[in-house]
Amino acid sequence: MNKVVQDAEEAIIGLQDGMTVMFGGFGLCGIPENAISAILKKGIKDLICISNNAGVDDFGLGLLLKNHQIKKMIASYVGENAEFERQLLAGELQVELIPQGTLAERIRAGGAGIPAFFTPAGVGTEVAEGKEVREFDGKLYLMEKWLRADFSFVKAWKGDTEGNLIYKGTARNFNPMMATAGKITIAEVEELVPAGELDPNFIHTPGVYVKRIFQGKNYEKRIEQRTVRK
């Protein structure tokens, strides 16, 4: 099945105001830059965003924040975004901060069809407020529920026309699990090849999870904090 669409504008068809959306990537690595730009241009608003972080002020999800298109942010790290901080303190943005491992597992659980699980992370902290705590083998564990989305936007290094994906490096941190947890998963890739050209032994996301795929362009691939030796 050929799942190729022409560009990001065609890929986001069906995304509407108020939907829950996952954005893959880790920091600024492996983020779906083209999809974010298309959503920004179309002006879709009141989004509930699930992502590892909120980008920076002038790049990534920071662009959607600056344009007030995000209603709620569900993330594990937001320390590089001054506009995020301003909106949070001003009461303009709803925020749910989640321990990073818990966030990853809640997304993975959503893709695996597991509605809830228990973890020791967050017990005795604000994270546990309003959640069930249960004891197992003398230790307290917190119940966390799955995370799923209407749309998942992921970015891969290479993909084929059937939607099979290969990620590179740190981009594998959240993209693969988010690809499984969306009702509709959209993949943008740096290199798009015909079906059958990818070695099955190296595929990270099987095409069965991907609804649409397109070859992205003009990737900036910014580095959040550049550190070099003297």
Automatic annotation (TrEMBL):
Q: Which GO terms describe its molecular function?
A: CoA-transferase activity
**Which keywords accompany this UniProt record?**
Transferase
Coiled coil in keyword set: no
InterPro entries with a match to the protein in the record? 3-oxoacid_CoA-transf_A, CoA_trans_fam_I, CoA_transf_BS, NagB/RpiA_transferase-like
Concerning Pfam families, the annotation shows:
CoA_trans
Instruction: Report the family membership.
Output: Belongs to the 3-oxoacid CoA-transferase subunit A family.
Q: What is this protein called?
A: 3-oxoacid CoA-transferase subunit A
Q: Which organism is it from?
A: Thermoflexibacter ruber
